[in-house]
Design brief:
Elements (H helix, E strand, L loop, with lengths): L1 H11 L14 H14 L4 E5 L7 H16 L3 E5 L3 H7 L2 E6 L2 E7 L5 H9 L22 E7 L12 E5 L3 E6 L6 H9 L6 E6 L2 E2 L5 H6 L2 E4 L3 H4 L7 H7 L2 H4 E2 L4 E2 L1 H15 L15 H13 L5 E5 L7 H16 L3 E5 L3 H7 L2 E6 L2 E6 L6 H9 L9
Parallel strand pairs: 1-2, 7-14, 7-15, 10-13, 13-14
Antiparallel strand pairs: 3-4, 5-6, 5-8, 8-9, 11-12, 15-16
């Protein structure tokens, strides 16, 4: 089996350690494992759902070379994605679906981005241009500040190393990095899920290094995780019940013996309307929803709390183009209203269109800090992967 894995890995550029426990692999490596499983099972049709979502730009190019090799050897590949430039770059034929129906099929050589968007929505395209906020005033108190924060590495997970990070009111700080380079650990430290081995964490100007998760959340921190089903909802509970989990004290009545479900539903419906999201039913169990709908539920619940600081980890993952634009608009509106946003995304186009300041993580360390207009995507790609084209910035 190991010999077969090594052979296929070399042939198709899918190198992974055959002996590594899967739970220790990054999301990108797990995707490679899924493709290898299909090849080992002698599948002839490979269906890949959003396979580029956790890959750096150069890794996306590598995946497209894998596609070309698979096509050369007679495999059929179905590539499902919301990223139009990627499908235009690699597809022989493109099928657009809208509301469960095929809206059109085009040859890849004849398709354009504007034409595909028109098929997707039956009209004009949707734009989300860069809208930088006002430059935060000097001397303003940070909402979040990490000073020389380090964490202990767990197994093969990447620990943070002497991270200095500040998020000001009215600012979106973007974090770029290949999956597995400390993004999750950064979120865990801020939320209090992981303790600082060294350094200090401040929230609202107060030393919050040893605050509990409950206190941090109650103080005004919203969290949109990279894995909504695993980290933000209870699959066996309904959409409405999951909404109540965000703040059970707010909706509890009679000393906690009953819940004001009408208030829960009203808040959720108001938040969904504000975002422009639709959910099949608020009475469905969350575990029966699609990944995109679960992400919508989490976004609506977190933003209904009017947070002061928003930790957004891949907030548009799994969303269609229209819903993704709505989510980005809400982050911008929150920033303009004075909230701070820490936005982690593997979509560099999304980061560059939204953020006021960019930091790059590599192996748990911040290796670059820049305003988006002062750095190129290629430069960020080099920094994300530790390539020689990047320059280490303290």
């Amino acid at each position: 089996m190991v010999e077969r894995i090594d052979e296929l890995s070399q042939r198709y550029g899918l190198q992974v350690d055959p002996t590594a426990p899967v739970w220790r692999l990054s999301i990108g490596e797990r995707q490679k494992v899924e493709v290898l499983k299909l090849l080992l099972a002698d599948a002839q049709i490979l269906i890949l759902d959003e396979p580029t979502r956790s890959l750096a730009p150069h890794e996306v190019e590598g995946l497209f070379r894998v596609f070309a090799n698979l096509r050369r050897d007679g495999y059929a590949v179905v590539f499902i994605t919301h990223k139009l430039p990627e499908v235009l770059a690699c597809a022989d034929r493109i099928t657009v679906m809208r509301r469960g129906r095929v809206a059109g099929t085009l040859a890849g050589s004849e398709a354009t981005e504007s034409g595909l968007v028109s098929l997707m929505f039956g009209g004009g395209g949707i734009e989300s241009p860069h809208r930088g906020g006002k430059t935060p005033r000097e001397g303003v108190q940070p909402l979040l500040e990490l000073r020389q924060v380090s964490t202990r590495a767990q197994g093969e997970a990447t620990g943070l190393q002497e991270v200095n990070l500040t998020v000001l009111p009215g600012e979106i700080v973007g974090v770029a990095g290949v999956s597995g380079n400390g993004q999750r650990e950064l979120g865990d430290v801020i939320l209090g899920l992981e303790r600082c081995a060294r350094g200090t964490k401040y929230l609202w100007g107060q030393d919050a290094t040893h605050w509990s998760v409950a206190r941090i959340r109650a103080s005004g921190v919203a969290f949109i995780p990279e894995d909504p089903l695993g980290m933000a909802v209870v699959a066996g509970m309904t959409v409405q019940e999951n909404m109540a989990l965000a703040d059970t004290r707010k909706y509890a009545r009679q000393g906690g013996l009953s819940m004001d479900w009408a208030a829960v539903r009203e808040d959720l419906e108001r938040s969904l309307k504000r975002l422009g999201f639709t959910i099949p039913s608020l009475d469905l169990r969350v575990g029966t929803l699609s990944g995109g709908n679960i992400q919508r539920v989490v976004l609506a619940r977190e933003m209904a709390r009017n947070p002061r600081l928003i930790l957004a980890f891949y907030p548009t993952r799994g969303l269609d183009v229209r819903s993704a634009v709505a989510a980005r608009e809400l982050l911008v509106a929150s920033r303009d209203a004075g909230a701070g946003v820490l936005l982690i995304s593997e979509d560099l186009g999304e980061l560059f269109s939204l953020i006021d300041l960019l930091v790059v993580l590599f192996r748990g360390r911040i290796v670059g800090t820049s305003k988006p207009q002062e750095i190129t995507v290629n430069k960020v790609g080099y920094l994300m992967t530790g390539s020689r084209g990047g320059t280490w910035v303290e």
